[in-house]
Amino acid sequence: MSLRAAELLKLLARAKLTLLDVGAARECPARTVNDRDVGVLIRIELAESLAECDDELVAEGVQFLGAVQRQRYDGSIDRVFDKLSHGVFLLKRVPYDTTMRRRPTYTDHDGFRMPKGFPVAGFVSSLTYQARAADVLISTYPKCGTTWMQNIVWLILNRGEPLAVTTKMTDVIPHLEEVGRAFVEALPEPRVIKTHLPFGLCPRHPEMKVIYVTRNPFDCAVSFYHHTRGFPRHYDFSEGTFDDYFECFVAGEVDFGDYFDNIGSWLDEIDAPNCLFLTYEQMKADPRAAVVAVGEFLGPQLGAAVGDDAALDRIVAHSSFDAMRKDQLRWASKRPDDMPEFVRKGVIGDWANHFSSAQVRRMLARLADSPHAARLRALWPEIIQGAESFAAAGSDPRHSTQ
Fold first, then answer.
1. Looking at the structure, do residues 173 and 216 belong to the same domain, yes or no?
2. Torsion angle of the four alpha carbons 108, 113, 116, 118, in this order, in degrees rounded to the nearest 10
3. What pLDDT score was predicted for residue 109?
4. Model confidence pLDDT, tens digit, residues 348-382
5. Where are the alpha helices (DSSP H) in 42-133?
6. Does 152 reside within a domain?
7. Do 206 and 323 fall into the same domain?
8. How far apart are CA 186 and CA 92, in angstroms?
9. Are 168 and 24 found together in one domain?
10. Contact present, 266 and 200 (Cβ < 8 Å)
């Protein structure tokens, strides 16, 4: 059954159902749509995007996925769908599934999402922390190499001696917006601090040292998904799928805000003399060079260990993926046995095992919309070209690794 695009949109408008991102991709994921009388979730698969097919639009399948509101509307399904006339009769022909699209739960701090359980007081007080000249700030968007960089800095400061299995990284290099101002102020100098805050909310001092690490958005999204479902008490998302999580990530509706906003807030600052900018991909390509770069940036006193070959060998060894997979309670709290480990794969390109071509196109569209698009493309030219080829080929892998 074919409908002109304009006719389909009129039908949707007449039923007061809002279909978002209809022109973005072949598959429009289930979205919340509301009428004054009823709220439902629907899935509509389009043969082509509106942008490519403004003359005729083929609705291949439409599926009722369940009620949004608390009470069930099973008896009202036909009435609601009848508003769409006979034009989309496939609504009645496709069996429905009562599964609703899941979302992680967060704590909202005045519009800033954080994991459930992170204290509001800690977040609020973190915004008043006064940085000192001796401070070292490790800033990242989540899942871009944060713990890896914390471990590297710890190892450099301790001449390659690994963190004891009885010690937690958060005790020695704390997460500012989780523990709050008082905890950080009680640390001995030089204080090494972790943050996921955008530049505008970060503590600043012209002499402090700032290390910013970023990662391509595709792998970041996949890693963040596995992180989120692996901590049920923080997110209540253990049953969530990558498709569920992708909708939140691409909309910037995840903890610590939007990926593109975060990196964009830092790109104008990373050329400052007190800032070191690295990508996860650079660090993977040449870990030893990354360690040396960090040590040299920290200076002759804090970074002296990288000038000693034996100490440098220890630092590189103990910051390797294989080493960090051991004794993982140093890095994070215990995860359920049926979840991936906190240090999971540590590879580049795992996104291709999770993304559909439609999702790749939508992520590329977010990148293209960024005012820093040219600079972002320059950071990962091969990855972005690969993503464009993936999208053009219409690849839709089975999500067997989720």
1. yes
2. -90
3. 78
4. 888 988 899 999 999 999 999 999 999 999 999 99
5. 77-82, 90-93, 120-126
6. yes
7. yes
8. 64
9. no
10. no
Domain range for 67 is 2-93
Catalytic sites, residue numbers: 196
| Statement to judge: residues 33 and 111 lie in one domain | no
Q: Which of 43, 60, 93 is the last residue of a domain?
A: 93
Cβ–Cβ under 8 Å, residues 217 and 363: yes
**pTM score, two decimals?**
0.72
- CB burial of 80-105 (b: ≥16 within 10 Å; e: otherwise) equals bbeebeeebebbeeeebeeeebbbbe
Same domain? For 54 and 193 the reply is no
Q: Three-class SS of residue 279? A: strand
At 326 the pLDDT is 76
Structural domains in the chain (count) = 2
Cα separation, 88 vs 305, in Å, equals 68
Beta strand pairing call for 39-46 and 27-34 = antiparallel
Query: Which positions ≥6 away from 356 have C-beta within 8 Å?
Result: 27, 395, 396, 397
Sign of CA dihedral 350, 213, 163, 342: negative
Find the Cα–Cα–Cα–Cα dihedral 359, 361, 364, 370, rounded to 10°: -90
* pLDDT for the residue numbered 132: 95
Parallel, antiparallel, or unpaired for β 275-279 and 209-214? parallel
Query: Of 63, 93, 123, at which residue does a domain stop?
Result: 93
